[in-house]
Amino acid sequence: MQQEVAFVTGAAQGIGEAIARRLAKDGFAVAVADMNTDKAQAVADSINQSGGRAMAVTLDVTDRVQVRSAVEKTATKLGDFNVIVNNAGLGPTTPIESITPELFDKVYHVNVAGTIWGMQAAVQAFRDRGHGGKIINAASQAGVVGNPNLMLYSSTKFAIRGLTQVAARDLAKEGITANAYAPGIVKTPMMMDIAHQVGVNAGKDDEWGMSTFSDGIALGRLSEPEDVANAVAFLAGHDSDYVTGQTLIVDGGMQFQ
C-alpha cells in the first residue's frame, strides 16, 4: 500500500512537534513545516534516524502562495498527500485595551488566514490526486469557553471551530473530513509565555499566572504535548473516518460538553 502523507504546521516544537512524531510513529510520512528552518530540520532528522520518514519545510503560514507551494512540494517528494494538521498559531496575552490594529492583523493572519490557506492547499492536493483526505485544525479550550486576557487568541479559536464545521459540510461529498482539536493547558513554550504575561499584568509571578488557567482540571495535572498528539492521531487515522465537523476537546476535564 502507498504510504500516507501528513503535513503538520508549527511542527518544530511543542504540540506540533509531538504530533509530527506521533504520526511518524503511526506510519505516516511527515512534512515538518515551520518558520524555524533549523528546528524543523532537527525534528525531521530525528524522525528519520528513528526509522520514520520525514522532511522539513520552511513555511510562513500567512503567505497563501507559500503554503500552496509547500503542500505541493510535500506531495511530490513524499508521493501523496492525505492529512493536513493546521497547528501553527500565536497566543499573545491581550487585555481588551491592549489590542491594536497591527496585533489584530498579526494574530488573525496566523491563526485564521493560515488555517484557511492550509485547507485550500490541502483540498487542491486531494483533488489533484483523485482521493479524499483529512483536514485537522487547531482550536483550543479557549475557543470553546472565552478565557480572560485572551481576546484575540480566544476569538480566533472560536473562528477555527466555525470554519471547520463549514468545511465539513462543503467537502463531505468528496470524501474529505474536517475536524478540530481543542487542547487545554499544555506545557509548551507558548503557554508558559501566556502565563508569564498574565502574571505580569496582575503584578503576580508565573506560577500564579499558570494557576489562573489550570484551576479545575478534573484529571489533576497539566497536559503534555503528547496528550494532544494522541488525540490528533485518532483524527488522522482511519478509526475516525465517520467523524467530521467536530471539535475534540483534550483538556483533562476542564469543561464538559
Automatic annotation (TrEMBL):
Under which main EC class is this enzyme filed? oxidoreductase
Species per Swiss-Prot/TrEMBL record: Bifidobacterium mellis
InterPro entries in the record: 23BDH, NAD(P)-bd_dom_sf, Sc_DH/Rdtase_CS, SDR_fam
Swiss-Prot/TrEMBL GO biological process terms = acetoin catabolic process
Q: Describe the family membership recorded for this protein in Swiss-Prot or TrEMBL.
A: Belongs to the short-chain dehydrogenases/reductases (SDR) family.
Q: Where does NAD(+) bind?
A: 13-15, 34, 60-61, 87, 153, 157, 183-188
Q: Which GO terms describe its molecular function?
A: diacetyl reductase ((S)-acetoin forming) (NAD+) activity
The reply on keyword Magnesium is no
> Where along the chain is the active site annotated?
Y153 (proton acceptor)
| EC code | 1.1.1.304
Q: What is this protein called?
A: diacetyl reductase [(S)-acetoin forming]
Q: Which domain of life is it from?
A: Bacteria
Catalyzed reactions: (S)-acetoin + NAD(+) = diacetyl + NADH + H(+)
Pfam hit, one: adh_short
**Which keywords does the record carry?**
NAD, Oxidoreductase
